[in-house]
Amino acid sequence: MSRTDQKKVNPEMLVEMIPFLRRYHKKVILIKYGGNAMVNDELKKQVIEDIVLMKYMGMYPVVIHGGGPEITSMLELIGKKSTFVEGLRVTDKETMTVSEMVLSGKIAKDLVARISSYGIKSIGLSGQDGGLIVAEQKNPELGYVGEIKKINSELINKLLNEDFIPVISSIGCDENGNRYNINADEAAGKIAIELNAPVQIMLTNIQGVMKSQGDEMKVIPRINVKEIDVYIKDGVITGGMIPKVKGCAESVMKGVEKVYIIDGRKSHSLLSEIFSDLHEGTVIHK
Ligand SMILES: Nc1ncnc2c1ncn2[C@@H]1O[C@H](COP(=O)(O)OP(=O)(O)O)[C@@H](O)[C@H]1O
Ligand SMILES: CC(=O)N[C@@H](CCC(=O)OP(=O)(O)O)C(=O)O
Q1: Which of 152, 151, 160 has the alpha carbon at shortest distance from 122?
Q2: Which protein residue has the closest C-alpha to ligand 1 atom 15?
C-alpha cells in the first residue's frame, strides 16, 4: 500500500472526543454483552474492537457476557427443551452443567482470546474464581438458579490495576461449592454497583425497551425506575427484558449514574454510546 492509499484519521473527530475521554478517564465501564447480540463474527469483532479501544483510551472496561441462545441450542442437541419463568431459565443439574460449559468454557474463552489478539491482557472469571460471585438458590422451583448474595470486587479491582480486561461469566457459587446459573443481566447490575462503575451498558438484540404506539413499536427513550413494575404488570415488558430492566433499576438506585440498554446489532454501538450525549436506546433513570 502506498502512503497515499492509507486512510487518514480525522483530527477534528479525535479532538471532539476530548470531553468524553476526560469524563471516562480511568472509570469503569461495565458492558453486558448479551447472547442475543452475539449475532455474527463481524459484529463480534466490532464489539471487541470497541472494548479494546476503550482500554487503550484509558478507560477500564469490564465485560459480563450472556449466552442464553447458545445454552438453548446446546441443550437442544442433547434433546432438552428450555423453560423460562420471567426470563430465568429453569435449571436442573444437567442444564447447570451445560450452562457452565457454554458460558465459562466456550463464550468467555472466545471473548478473552479475541481481546488478547489486540495486545490487551484479558482474563475469564466465573463466580467461583476468587469468590467473585457468592450466590444461593433463588427459588426451589427454578432449580439451580442463583440469587447473588455478594460480589467480591477486590479481585476485579486487582485485575483492573494490572491492566486486564475481566470477562465475567454469570455463574455463582455458595460456601459449600454448589454452583448456580445466574441471569447475566442481574449479575451485570450487581457488579456495576460493587465496582462503582459510573456507566453500565447493556448490549442486546433490540433497539431498546419498546412499546406499541398505534400500529408501530417504538423505543421508550427514558424509563424512570418507578415505571418498571407497571410496564411488567401491563405486559409491555416481558421475557428476557424483565431481568434486564430490573437489574438496570437496581444499578440506578444504588449509584450507577448512567444505565443504557442499546442495540448490540448496530455497528460499533458501544463507541457511539460512549462518545456522544445523544443516546439511541433506552436510558434507565431515577
Ligand atoms: N418491551 C420490550 N422491549 C424490548 N424487548 C422486549 C420487551 N419485552 C420483551 N422483550 C424481549 O426481550 C428480549 C431481550 O432480552 P434477552 O433475550 O434476554 O436478550 P439478551 O440476550 O441481550 O440478554 C428482546 O429481544 C425481546 O424479545
Ligand atoms: C438463570 C438464567 O436465566 N441464566 C441465563 C444465563 C445466561 C444469560 O443470561 O444470557 P443472556 O444475557 O444472553 O440472556 C441462561 O441460562 O440463559
Answers
A1: 160
A2: 240
